[in-house]
Amino acid sequence: MTMPKKLPILSPSxxxxxxxxxxxxxxxxxxxxxxxxxxxxxxxYCQVHCSGMPENYYIYKRIGGGLTIKxxxxxEYKKNYITLSGVNLARIAGEPSRxxxxxxxxxxxxxxxxxxxxxxxxxxxxDVEDSIVWKMKRIDITQDFYVKTDxxxxxxxxxxxxxxxxxxxxxxxxxxxxxxxxxxxxxxEKYNFELYDKHKQLSAEEEKGYAIRSEDIAASKNLVRYEIxxxxxxxxxxxxxxxxxxxxxxKDHALFDYFTELKTVIPVLLYxxxxxxxxxxxxxxxxxxxxxxxxxxxxxxxxxxVRAYIxxxxxxxxxxxxxxxxxxxxxxxxxxxxxxxxxxxxxILNNRQYARFPVAPIYSRVQGIDR
Length: 371
Known about the structure:
Distance between the termini: 31 Å
Shape: elongated
Number of strands: 11
Mean pLDDT: 93
Largest sheet: 11 strands, antiparallel
Order of helices and strands: EHEEEEHHEHEEEEHHEHHHHHHH
């Protein structure tokens, strides 16, 4: 008898981050421009020109990826700004894989941070850091997971659940290309929720002419990335609670301290965000939910009420409203049956997708949680 192949289990980590610095002296600004110019002459950075870009705004990208630098100024207030965005410590450390994430082991993080500091020194940033006030603007934490087939199915289900139960999920900002589902994204004040097919993302970039390793294309097949993009409102609260509102000094290894502290809560954050937004139980298609209801030992009136709810959910164009009492009874019954309240209509599924139900809740994919 052939045993089913086990899917690889991956650890949660940090994908990229963005940090913004503010300074006022002209000498620092001049030094940064000169240092970046030298690196451009050496072929290590290139300038990016965008139409409609405001005056006093400059963008530079690291050849090989892993870092984008934005320099801007506000003469009216005599303020200058430097933004380090899309920072991927693994890429800067020389990891060629587009699937590489931050190494959060003490030794691995220390090594990646040291190489990052060397990069900042070559950019002239450490020379003038005493005049810069840094603020962490965004950190993207992630849990990659493999599925056996059809990685677009979790996104299709999450999109639909967000559509019929939008409360508390934020603004939808999904991405499609050539009628293909590429991602599902929900924008919130403190964080963004994103789920996307990593294989399709890399394949699309390869089609645009970006250099993508064949090993990454192969390894990303059936790989889904679940990402929470932590924004300044959340990070400010995190810094106050966990870091005593410390001032960030990169050359004094503040990044190591920051990420070491964040590492302890990453799995919990990923777990809680998905649980709160999309619930505790697997998603069922209508036929599967009706079958599970039929097999239950519920009384006749409860079965009839919940069956009517499921059948109505299978025809979303036919609006049905329930009073508070009935709605509570339906929710409690589905909870007891371990069925997500967002029932997926059979009609929006193809045969392959239909066979993959029930679909596990997103929070259950997070590793490093004591359940």
